[in-house]
């Protein structure tokens, strides 16, 4: 029986191996990209819900943004490896997205259209903040493209 810290070391080593191996196929889209596409769709659903005053739809959709799926650990390791000391900031933007989406859900539960709209603006700002700072460098690093637009 190995002491637990060996397990941790093994894990880090295999994650690193996975990182170097997957790095060969650098042009494969990140799982993160699919997570983002879904965030985009759910934002549209919320806009649609507000237009139709369908608070139930808004309430149901907000948690899909707040608790969006995460990329697998191997991909997180690649992203963390690239982000280095910026990772804290990256995570903070994601936390802001989480909080604002929760606020939308809360406002929808209260059928507070104005509250939803105010939180929606803050939510969009949180998406935008991360995109304007990190999207381009991440896209360039992982896809070797100069332009973030696909
Ligand atoms: C913590 C950082 C971060 C936050 C917060 C964030 N994004 Fe992103 N987003 C990214 C990165 C990085 C990419 C580029 C991913 C890629 O191309 O692999 C991206 C790309 C996208 C794309 C383009 C996907 C495609 O088809 O290429 C959409 C749409 C998107 N995000 C929507 C959103 C929405 C909506 C929110 C807020 C609800 C949001 N994002 C919040 C980092 C973030």
TrEMBL record:
<protein>
    <recommendedName>
        <fullName>Cytochrome c</fullName>
    </recommendedName>
</protein>
<dbReference type="InterPro" id="IPR002321">
    <property type="entry name" value="Cyt_c_II"/>
</dbReference>
<dbReference type="InterPro" id="IPR010980">
    <property type="entry name" value="Cyt_c/b562"/>
</dbReference>
<dbReference type="GO" id="GO:0020037">
    <property type="term" value="F:heme binding"/>
</dbReference>
<dbReference type="GO" id="GO:0009055">
    <property type="term" value="F:electron transfer activity"/>
</dbReference>
<dbReference type="GO" id="GO:0022900">
    <property type="term" value="P:electron transport chain"/>
</dbReference>
<dbReference type="GO" id="GO:0005506">
    <property type="term" value="F:iron ion binding"/>
</dbReference>
<keyword id="KW-0732">Signal</keyword>
<feature type="signal peptide">
    <location>
        <begin position="1"/>
        <end position="26"/>
    </location>
</feature>
